[in-house]
Amino acid sequence: MSEMWLTPPSTAPEAPPPDSLKAEARVLLRAMLGSEEDFRRDQYEAIERLVSGRRRVLLVQRTGWGKSFVYFIATGLLRKRGAGPTLLISPLLSLMRNQIETSRRAGVRAYTINCTNRDEWAEVEHVIGKGACDLLLVSPERLANQGFQSLGLEKRIGMLVIDEAHCVSDWGHDFRPDYRRIIQYTRRLESDVPVLATTATANTRVVEDVRTQLGFDPVVIRGPLARESLRLFIMPESEQAQRMAWLAHHVPKILGHGIIYCTTIRDTEKVAAWLKGKGIKAAAYHSELKTEVRERLEQELLANEVKVLVATVALGMGFDKPDLGFVIHFQRPGSIVGYYQQIGRAGRRLDDAVVLLMSGPEDREINRHFIAAAFPPAEVMTEIIAKLGGSPKRTDRLLQEINVRPKMLDQALKILEVDGVIAISGNPHQHRLLRSDWSCDKDRIDSVLDQRRRELEDIEVKYSGHKGCLMEFLIRALDDPSGVACGRCQNCTGKAIDSTVPAELVAEARAFLEAQIIRIQPRKQWPKGMMEGPVTIPADLRTHEGRALSHYADPGLGKRVQQGKYRDEGFDDALVEAAAHLIRERWLPKPDIQWVTAIPSKRRPRLVPDFAGRLAKRLGLPFKQVLVRVVDAPEQKTMENSFAQARNVLGSLRIEGESLPGSVLLVDDMIDSGWTFAAAGWLLRSKGVPGVYPFALAMTRAGG
Question: What is the mean pLDDT of residues 278-307?
Fold first, then answer.
């Protein structure tokens, strides 16, 4: 391999004869896959265009087709001819780990710079500097890093690869603002630098938008998307307990190992715990786990040490287990494109793999929430610009001044930074305004959101109710005209999946859901800037760990809470009994609770005190309403971050009269952020109450 990529040749290396190039490429392919393997249709064509033609290529091929082999082999061939290293922009760390392992089997020296390997950055930069790096993997966010920019790679790379290129598009199912940096980066490259953009999930709209966004006219190499090994099934919509019982009853009978996709982190943990309790080797996988835990779980699934990972889409692009036997969706995803991408994990090198789509009544609310949260509201963007007009500010200061969720603020700041409206500088980092002439492209946002609503309807109504071939429906939705009936799905064979489950197992699953321990952790610090002096809440002024009876609107108790608050204007005796049972039989707080009080409300003044009084009677304890609202503050659920939530509560509560002796059960109907309990507990303990134990009828998704 050349050591001289820092001073690339002024003219492109002379291309070898085609037959010679193919022979070289085949040697590299077989080094990765084995001595009998040969190229699939279109693989060598893409390699040849990149190496000989120095063309720009958009490769749209199904998951598992082997897109990574194209850029590994092209990298090896280009490096042998004196080109600089390949820069591969990849969206997920799990994808990077797998790609590095695969590339090295072909003799391609691959390295990565990312947020999890900071201790290796200096070594990697040294390797790059001496020309011993053939392929460098980075996330799109890395393009904005000043240290990375100082390497000056854009003038030295031999090829640029944009993996999961649908993320560039407004219409891609996984749009990320940082992918816009790639657009800017690509346009600064010399015209003879090969560029390869790859994706498995691009319909015609996405393909055309990627071409437009990247600013060049690539050769599009598009293959058939049908997956011959997959057997597609759809189960009628059902409650969570029914679906969980089905999983426990039927998953052990499915050959091989697989993935169960859930829409929320909470559901991955709940379903995994249920399956483990039924003797199935299962584990939850999601973005909030530490990197080393995710890596370990991936390896356990690859080694067939677990039957199933119950995962969010964090286990998605780039995870490659060729013998994955099944993919089950516990809930419906938000689009056909996303669904096709996820089920593509299964059956890559199997003759038969099971794909099952489940759904429940909660799907609609979850997916519509994700659509609504896709873009920061225009007023948040303009408020940020206004707040930065005077001087630079840190993120925590902006949260004090703007009522916005932290994740939404981060997204808004990211968009403004990528658009060149603001810049980040200083230590600690501060955001400073570069220009104030930003305006919201409302038409574009409305168009994207309307399209996502249509895509949701496509899977929610059209696919779920489709009577013809399911595989044909999927690939035609991706604008692949080659679709024909697969002969394997439930509609082609006339054989639906067995949906029968023993009634006692459904009852057990329902009891499991209602018996979940939902902990209310005490707040230990005031939001930064809330108090003068120390932000830590002294231990003797905090609440103790509390409990919630249910998750809001979940089947069973959660639905009863929802109906009681908004339909019946009161909570029924079944909730009193369930709460008393949890407190006396499953929680048993120590020291013992001696009395009960309630969080007051000016909008529904009797709702919670009435329930708390009945609960106190059932527990054989006195009830005293010592907390009162002194101002009619906005509902806590309208407050979007900790600073706004804490500020909304502090000053709106006070204690009237004397507290009763002993520890108290502090009752509310909902817990969103925990700041209402924190503020009320602070007041009570300031008055000498020795222990405050929060109890809520339901935890909202925000609280959970």
Answer: 95
